[in-house]
Design goal:
By secondary structure, the protein is α/β, with parallel strands linked by helices. It has ten helices and 17 strands. Strands 12-11-13-14-10-15-16-17 form an eight-stranded mixed sheet, with helices on both faces. The N terminus is likely disordered.
């Protein structure tokens, strides 16, 4: 089965200017782990062999990878991405977007850029999506056309197939940093701003973590919420037990005692699904010193607020929100999914969350733009007061 997948996916990695050896490769270096067939040729790209299931002249072209800077860190464990591995290996790249046969876009820190030399057919894009989702232990088909998985080393892959997508197979790949970034590293990268204010903010965040303040990190997709959360958790004392709960595991925390729980998709028979709400309840039985919900986006917010209101200090979570002022409304909307009244959400959130950290991304740069606290206004509604 995998051999057939490798044959179907690999053709569009060929680069005509590279030399071609007629001998088959014993294992394809794109990461599919199968021996090459008799019809397979090996294409050498900068000394790295990449198998292709058709003659090189029939393959589509991709740009020559950027020459690494001496001493620059590389991103390991990307071979499983097949023909996308050459882009993912660049440590600057944070996101890859494959839009069916319409092209490939990457974000290397300066916003999205199209790759004009890239081409693949819709059939090849679909086959690659099916393969990557299978590597993550899940399945994607017409019955389940939208699937999110985690691959090795924290790589996150989201796939959407037609008919849910009207523009062909879509792949959105989020790549973790090559290293686990500390708060100090984030300050050096400008996430906390510049100048003396950045150093003061760094110390304030460290104090919040060591003081076991419950934190909620908010912002748009790709604004750096997961990166900041992982760095904050890395500041926790080593003797504390951190329990992570995620829909798809992304958090990579530099801490000696971290255990992780991950939600599970139902199988082909519709059984075996494990929800975030269930995992939060299970985590409470694991004696966590810090309970962390990677992302609040549904009814699980009820379990999180309940847990953080029952003596589990030092917890954290992330939430999508447009601005600091919109966080209260977002929590009320999620609470409604759990059949919580706005008043109940307001009281629980104001009591449970000690600090709200809002991130923004503009011009390809990520910034911690606002800090606030929850308060109840004169009507008892939830409000976020900037600090």
């Amino acid at each position: 089965m995998r051999r057939n997948v490798a044959r179907m996916i690999e053709p569009f990695v060929a680069v005509p200017s590279y030399t071609v050896d007629p001998a088959p490769a014993p294992v394809d270096s794109a990461g599919f782990g199968e021996a090459a067939t008799e019809s397979t040729r090996v294409i050498h790209a900068g000394g790295v062999a990449v198998s292709a299931g058709v003659p090189a002249s029939a393959g589509a072209t991709v740009p020559t990878p950027r020459t690494p800077v001496p001493g620059e860190a590389s991103r390991p464990n990307v071979a499983g991405l097949g023909p996308l591995a050459r882009f993912a290996g660049d440590p600057r790249v944070t996101d890859l977007f494959l839009n069916g046969d319409s092209g490939l876009w990457i974000d290397a820190g300066s916003g999205l850029e199209a790759q004009p030399g890239w081409h693949c057919t819709e059939a090849q894009a679909r086959q690659l999506a099916v393969h990557l989702i299978a590597l993550g232990g899940r399945h994607v088909d017409e019955a389940s056309p939208c699937v999110d998985v985690r691959l090795n080393d924290g790589i996150r892959v989201h796939a959407v197939l037609p008919p849910a997508s009207s523009s062909g197979t879509l792949l959105s790949i989020r790549l973790p940093h090559s290293e686990r970034l500390s708060l100090e590293a984030l300050r050096a990268n400008g996430l906390l701003g510049t100048g003396p204010e950045a150093s003061a903010l760094l110390e304030r965040l460290r104090t919040a973590v060591t003081g076991r303040t419950n934190l909620l990190i908010t912002g748009a997709a790709g604004s750096g919420k997961t990166t900041l959360l992982a760095a904050l958790l890395g500041e926790a004392p080593p003797g504390e037990r951190i329990v992570l709960i995620e829909d798809v595991a992304e958090l990579r925390v530099a801490h000696p005692h971290v255990v992780a729980l991950e939600a599970r998709q139902a199988n082909l028979e519709g059984a075996g699904r494990i929800t975030l709400e269930a995992l939060v309840r299970e985590a409470l039985r694991m004696r966590p010193d810090r309970l962390v919900l990677g992302e609040c986006r549904g009814a699980e917010v009820r379990e999180l607020l309940t847990a953080l209101n029952t003596g589990h200090d030092g917890g954290a979570g992330t939430l999508h929100a447009n601005s600091l002022a919109d966080v209260g409304a977002r929590l009320e909307a999620l609470g409604a999914l759990a059949r919580m009244s706005p008043e109940a959400v307001a009281r629980q959130a104001a009591s449970a969350i000690g600090l709200v950290l809002h991130l923004e991304r503009r011009g390809g740069e990520r910034r911690l733009s606002q800090i606030g606290r929850f308060e109840l206004d004169s009507r008892g509604a939830l409000a976020v007061v900037p600090e």
